[in-house]
Design brief:
globular; Phage tail protein beta-alpha-beta fold; 2 domains; two-stranded antiparallel sheet; 9 strands; alpha+beta
């Protein structure tokens, strides 16, 4: 786990148990975080931070036979996401997010429809086998920069 304030790893004691017990133990030792489960997907977030970008409603056409790198590149170009970034004067830095360590990524498909960006990222993370995504935004008072990662 990384600290949103200092970008340093967080270490904590966990004697073992279920995933629920792991997450409960984490938030008990670091109350600035909270977690929730939504249809089998676990969301961990820094308490008090709500990133409106995750809630942007999109009309996604779907994707067939895309690699994770292609999806990472395509997401900021979704019209509703691009409009949000532009209207909030946010840049999007893809940085090293397009590098994959390990075997070559296999193409996958993502269903289309009306959804939020968070729901799209849930699908992409699950179907690509990465199982983890994050949205990180610079704090208020600093130039807006957003990083959307699927790891």
């Amino acid at each position: 786990m990384w600290s949103p304030q200092a970008s340093v790893p967080i270490f904590f004691d966990f004697p073992g148990g279920t995933v629920r017990q792991l997450l409960d133990s984490f938030v008990s030792q670091f109350p600035a975080y909270q977690w929730r489960e939504d249809k089998g997907i676990i969301h961990v977030f820094w308490h008090g931070t709500h990133l409106p970008l995750a809630d942007v409603a999109i009309s996604y056409p779907g994707a067939r036979g895309k690699t994770l790198g292609q999806m990472r590149s395509d997401i900021p170009d979704i019209p509703e996401i691009k409009a949000w970034l532009d209207s909030n004067h946010c840049s999007h830095d893809q940085g090293l997010a397009n590098y994959t360590i390990g075997p070559l990524p296999q193409p996958f498909s993502v269903d289309g429809g009306s959804m939020t960006l968070a729901q799209l990222l849930d699908q992409v993370a699950t179907k690509s086998g990465q199982n983890y995504w994050s949205i990180v935004q610079t704090p208020p008072g600093k130039p807006c920069d957003v990083d959307i990662s699927i790891e």
